[in-house]
Amino acid sequence: MIAIMPAPDYSSRLKTLRAELTKLGYDGYFIPMSDEYQSEYVPSSAQRVSFMSGFTGSAAFIIVMMDKALFFTDGRYTLQASQQIPGSLYSIYDGTVTSPTDWLSENAKAKMKLAYDPWLHTAAGVERLQKALAKVGAELVPFERNLVDVLWTERPAPPSEPIFAHEMVYAGKTSGEKRHVIAGELKRDGLSAAVITDCASIAWLLNVRGNDIPNTPLPLSFAVLHTDASVDWFVDPLKLTKGLQHHLGSQVTPREPSEFKSALDKLANAEQAIRVDPSETASWIIERLKNADAKLDLGDDPCSLPKACKNPVELEGMATAHRRDGAALVKFFTWLEHSILSGSVTEISAGEKLSEFRSANNLYRGPSFDTISGAGPNGAIVHYRASQSSNRKLEKGQFYLLDSGGQYLDGTTDVTRTVAIGSITQEMRERFTRVLKGHIALAMIRFPEGTTGAELDVLARQYLWAAGVDYNHGTGHGVGSYLGVHEGPQGISKRNRVALKPGMVVSNEPGYYKAGHYGIRIENLQYVTEAAEIGGGERKMLGFETLTLVPIDRRAIDTFMLSESERSWINTYHTRVREALRPMMDKTETNWLESATAAL
Known about the structure:
34% of the residues lie in helices and 20% in strands. The protein is of the alpha+beta class.
C-alpha cells in the first residue's frame, strides 16, 4: 500500500513562525527565494518559500508580519501564485508594480523590528530594505539562525554532487588564460583579490561543471581570485572527482568550506582593496569583511562580462547544440501531428515525449529548465508547470504553448513555440501575428555600439501596444554556454541598462496572454554580432544572428498583416531551418519539415 502524505499545513507553519518571532522580540521576518550563493534556482534544501507557501516558481519574496503575510513575485508567476498559494493566508503582489520595499515604506510602523538571515540577502538587497524601513522609523535586524529552518524538521540535506571538468573542446579557453586576464585587470585597478560568490562565474573561471542545482550544471562553492591568478576554492572535497586537480592545475587550491570565514578575515589584512559585488554577494560576507576593517571595492563580479561574451568556440558549440535541439523538436512536432488525432495527448505526455527525443543525443545532459507545456488556458500562465491536477489534453481550437530547453555539453538551448491545434479564431491569429511581428523586428534590428537592452525592448512590444495590449515579462534574458539558461548581465527588458556586446547570447521572446483562454510566445535565442558596414556610416553597428532552428507555425499567421520584409524574414529563416535539419530527418519527418517551412 502506498502511504498518502498529509497536505502541508501552511497555516500552522505561519503560526509557529510568528510564535518564534514573538519569543525573540521581532515584528516580522523576510523569506527570500535564495540560498547563500544567491542562486536563481535553488536546491531542495533551500526551498524555504515553497515550504512556507506551496509556491513552486523561481521568483518570490515573503514578508511575514504578526497580523498578515505578503507574497511578492513577478509578472511571470502572478497567476501561478494565485493558484498555488492559500489566499486566506497570503496577500499576493506583483513585485514589478508593488515591490516589498514599496509596501514596507507605506505599511511598516515606527519602532518595528524586522529580522532577516544575512546569508540569504545580498548586500544591495539589505540596503534597499534598510532605506525603506528608515523612512518610517523601523529597524532591520540580522539574525543568523534561519527561522524557517527551525520549523523545517525534515529539511533535505544540501546537495553534494560530483564536479567534473569542462573540456577545452567546449570551453575554448583554459582556466589559466581566463584567470590571468581577470587577475591582470584586478591588479591594474589597484586591487588585491576578488571574492566570487556567483557559482556560474566560478564554474566558468575554473572550467568545471556540476549538478548541485536543478537543470543548471553548477557546483555550489565560493572562491577568492588573487592578482597572481591563483584561486582559493571553497568547496566540499567529497565533490571532487578523480583527475580534477590535474585539470585545475597548481594555482587552484580546493579548501574546506569551513575555512571560508577565516579566509575572509585574512583578506582584511591586505593593503589593497578587495573586489566584492554587492548585488550578488550575501550580506553576511560583506559585513564580515567590514567588521575585519577590510578595504572594499564594491563593484561588478569581474567574471560576469567576459563570461557573457562567448568566444568563437563557445558560439560554435551553441550553434551545433541548437541544430541538434532543433532536430529533436522537429521529430517531436512530427510525432505530435500524427498523435494529436487520437485525443490522448496531454501536456505531461507531450513534455515527456519531447524529453525522449532530446535524450537520444549523446551530448544531452538534461533540461535547462522545467518544461512549460500549456494547452489552452494553461498557456496563459507564463511559467506554467503541468501537474496531475492541472494536466489538460491538447484539443482542437486551442493554442499549445511549449517552452523548453536542453543542457548540452557544448551549449544551452531555450525555445518556445506556440502551435495551433485545429482551427483557431481570428483574434488568436491576429494576436499571434502581432507577437511574431515584434519578434521579427527585434531579430532584424541593427543598432549602434553601446545600445542597451532597455533601448531595444520596445521593438518587440510595438505591435501589441498598437492594439492596446502588452506582456508582463522581459523580452529577453542572457543565456550561458552549458551554464545557466538565465545569465546576466545582459538582457532585453525595460530595466536592463547593460550595453550589448559581440558574443552575448540573449533570448527574443515577446508574448501575449489572455487569462483563462490562451497564451502565445515565440522565442529564439540569438547572439550579438558585428553588423556589415554601410557605405557612409559613421557609427560601429551591431546586430543579431539567430541560433534557434525550429519552424514557426505558419498556420497561426495572418499573412495579410505582414510587410514584405517580414514575409521575407520568415521565408529566409524557414529555408535556413529546412536546410540545416533535413539531413537529420527520416522520410516522415522530412515531409513534415518541408510542409512546416514552405514559403508563405
